[in-house]
Amino acid sequence: MNRVVLNEKGLVDIYGACEGLCVQDSYEAYVHYQQKVNGQEAVCGCLWAAVASECLSVDV
């Protein structure tokens, strides 16, 4: 995964997300929308994935 990287503090940074991305005027505006590190949508998705992977390893 090249979008999830350990930073200098040993914590995970998630790259490539657009916080609050809404409908854009054009495709060009959409694909060039400013990305940020640790956008809320990306962090949430990674947290859900971590929970799901933990649930798969537990006998219910």
Mean pLDDT over the full residue set: 87
Q: What's the helix count?
A: 2
The value of Rg in angstroms is 15 Å
Query: What is the element string, with H for helices and E for strands?
Result: EEHH
Structural class: alpha+beta
Unreliable stretches (pLDDT < 50, length at least 5) are none
Helix content: 25-40%
**Cα distance spanning the termini:** 29 Å
Largest sheet: 2 strands, antiparallel
Percent strand equals 5-15%
Shape: extended
What topology, given as strand order, has the largest sheet? 1-2
Number of strands: 2
Provide an overview of this structure.
With 60 residues, the protein is α+β, with helices and mostly antiparallel strands. 37% of the residues lie in helices and 10% in strands. The protein contains two helices and two strands. The protein has a two-stranded antiparallel sheet with strand order 1-2. Strand 1 and strand 2 form a beta hairpin. The mean pLDDT is 87.
Brief description of this entry?
This protein has 60 residues and is of the alpha+beta class.
Features of the shown structure:
alpha+beta; two-stranded antiparallel ribbon; 2 strands; 60 residues; 2 helices; extended
Secondary-structure map:
Blueprint: E1 4-6, E2 12-14, H1 27-31, H2 40-56
